[in-house]
């Protein structure tokens, strides 16, 4: 009986976006149905009998007789190319006069159900959706606003809907705060220079706040007049930090959709489409998934636009895959990758060789957060089960262990898939949603923080000649960043190839994950996470002193305690105290230490953990002055077989012969082994940790505080931006760092 071996390498050193919405060709689609404001419907028109010679016509109906709907509509040029971009936007006023079908970039603004002009009164009204051209539609009235991106090809309609509301303020951490002062935006720098870009009715303004390149840039804060009566884009940016306002003002009311959550572009994996990579400066590379052309649309605030294809066949210039493109330098814009039902939409800004991107999440902005929550809750439940079998220190990575099991889930079917999803906490999420959420998380974690190295890797090792389904391999590549490698299982060097991969991606902290490879092995899936973080403020080695650590069974041992006083994020709970110690220059990552009160058993504390409780605690941490005394320690855990533990989490049907992995390959398969290894080291300069796992599938601020961590404690390494838990650990008997 042959085996499918999934090796999960989970290593840490202590120290989405969401795809587009779509419909089948020629389907009648309700995009927006707001009974108090507006209804937007895409009406199929393949025979071009309705109003316009387009495959779809947009019907806009004002639902409130006392509230007209203002319509702003930007249609990008269809024939513009990267080599010959469209120059400027032609503003056509308030009616769709003859000529809209010309290959120009056009902007219209009108009203539906209005009374100021005769042409406004009709309700509903109809607007063309040109074939193979990206369009941006804004429906607004006072503080009600909807932003819609649309694109039609071959009868398929891709659309992204964003609902806004009254504008209050936009703050981008570490960059700027944008507030409204009368008829103006006030932009206040929170640190260095802030680039400001404003587009309205085809006109573009670019400026800086608190800058130094020109005298007029130096002022801080600065004010900018809010465009009146029509869609506008207002961006504040600097390198990897961006914030975007898309809005409409009328009669003193300002409705807007705001976006934040940016990062530097390194590599964005887009499930079902491909990969977007930054190449330095404004240069990017687009790699299309095998057999799936990617349509690339680009619009710059300076009014230029173009579109192209990668891996296509309609024109010879579309065929190369990957392809490189030059975006605009020192000028913001939008970049969209799409094909039929799938899309990824970004706002960008580049300066000084740093290309920042702002993913625009659409119909499910919480998808990444839902995947993060599933990972965290899975980690707490698994940790609790491990305590039933362990008597010493325990460490695992929810992020690292979740990865190969989610890849395995993508290859499962029926009850087998349900059981894996149950164990991982993915009920209510489809496989595509999990892949998209995880891809968004990987993209979020790509942004670098000086002083922190976070390395993630995943590989699918496929037995030479094995007919594994391409859909499974694509899910691994696009949703989980896996590289696909062909492996001659019977070759003497096969074992070293896999273990060598482990050593490479764990920086030598884990020598091997497998002791042998069964000759019947079909597939090995390896994943590795490596984290090395320097404390934002290091502990002084000169202050390290020996002291007693009280062991759970009585008695003490002498440990070297690091001590530092300063300002920390601190929480005093009912039966514990906790402190967050940040890593890196920006403090994005942190070690959260939880010390149960005297008399409170650490195992009982850990068993009480849940994602809901954890998230509530995260909101209650407050900055306080205090002193932390923490033992230096190292923790080596594994190799640990997790199969029985996962069975108790509900994965039983996937762990026995007869399991259904029809999305992976034909024939029977089951998970026959799940192995995990972890390593953590904490010292004065920071933290180092690593872990590895393997899955085998076989055929068939208030008062000051003092926190002395001198008894068993729990820790977590967390990405504070996404909430992702990279590592969890329980230390009952610390081993000193040599």
Structure description:
Residues 380-734 form the Serpin domain. GO terms for molecular function: serine-type endopeptidase inhibitor activity. This is Serpin domain-containing protein. This protein has 9 helices and 47 strands. By secondary structure, the chain is mainly β. The protein has 5 domains: 42-82 and 101-166, no CATH class; 167-260; 263-363, Immunoglobulin-like (Sandwich); 370-532 and 637-678, Antithrombin, Chain I, domain 2 (2-Layer Sandwich), CATH 3.30.497.10; 534-635 and 681-731, Alpha-1-antitrypsin, domain 1, CATH 2.30.39.10. The strands form 8 sheets. Strands 33, 37, 38, 39, 40, 41, 45, 46 and 47 form a 9-stranded mixed beta sheet that branches. Strands 1, 34, 35, 36, 42, 43 and 44 form a 7-stranded mixed beta sheet that branches. The chain has a 7-stranded mixed beta sheet with strand order 2-12-11-10-6-8-7, with no helix packed on it. A hairpin with a 2-residue loop joins strand 31 and strand 32. The longest helix is centred in the middle third of the chain and has 21 residues, at 367-387. Mean pLDDT is 85; it is low at 1-24 and 689-701.
Brief summary:
Pfam families: Serpin (PF00079). The protein is mainly β and 738 residues long.
Task: List key phrases describing it.
738 residues, mainly beta, Immunoglobulin-like, nine-stranded mixed β-sheet, seven-stranded mixed β-sheet, 9 helices, 47 strands, disordered N terminus
